Design the sequence.
């Protein structure tokens, strides 16, 4: 059985692969090599101001985007595949909301709702983040949020952090892979 899911990608640190935009693009290519993951659609990339905790050093801007995947992995297996991909690209989990080479978040897995210590679906903060909702609305506008009951296009109309993160689209249009 296959399921559609949505992920968010972000990076604000360069690595030997290159700058943040190259890293998120390479992460999509890496996910596409997994035998149980098909990358269906990728949003445009957005430059987003890093939102930091009070009294912490400023961070470089992020490159953010979203992708829709089709997978035969269950949500926990997919989460492990995302963690593996982060590690492959040099992600080190030092501090919450710290700078990172790659951040992959599982946002939606069909209309499934899960609340465990390992995984919460839908992602608990996705509806508060312009840098998630704007790219996700490009590629999954009609997807209904399983808890809020609203389409992603509706949720993206006025995200609460829009005036903090200032997402700016970098590419001309989304990438369709099917």
Sequence:
């Amino acid at each position: 059985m296959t399921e559609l899911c949505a992920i968010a990608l972000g990076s604000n640190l360069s690595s030997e692969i290159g700058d943040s935009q190259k890293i998120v693009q390479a992460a999509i290519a890496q996910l596409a090599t997994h035998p149980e993951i098909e990358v269906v659609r990728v949003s445009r990339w957005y430059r987003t101001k890093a939102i930091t905790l009070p009294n912490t050093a400023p961070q470089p801007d992020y490159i953010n985007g979203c992708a829709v995947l089709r997978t035969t992995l269950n949500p926990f297996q997919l989460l492990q595949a995302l963690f593996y991909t982060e590690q492959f690209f040099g992600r080190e989990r030092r501090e919450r909301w710290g700078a990172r080479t790659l951040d992959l978040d599982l946002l939606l897995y069909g209309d499934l709702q899960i609340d465990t210590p390992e995984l919460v679906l839908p992602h608990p903060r996705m509806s508060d983040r312009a840098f998630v909702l704007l790219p996700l609305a490009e590629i999954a506008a009609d997807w209904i949020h399983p808890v809020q009951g609203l389409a992603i296009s509706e949720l993206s109309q006025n995200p609460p952090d829009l005036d903090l993160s200032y997402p700016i689209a970098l590419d001309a249009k989304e990438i369709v892979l099917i």
User: Anything to note?
Assistant: Residues 16 and 89 are 9 Å apart (CA to CA). The chain has five helices and nine strands. The radius of gyration is 15 Å. Residues 75-88 form the longest helix (14 residues).
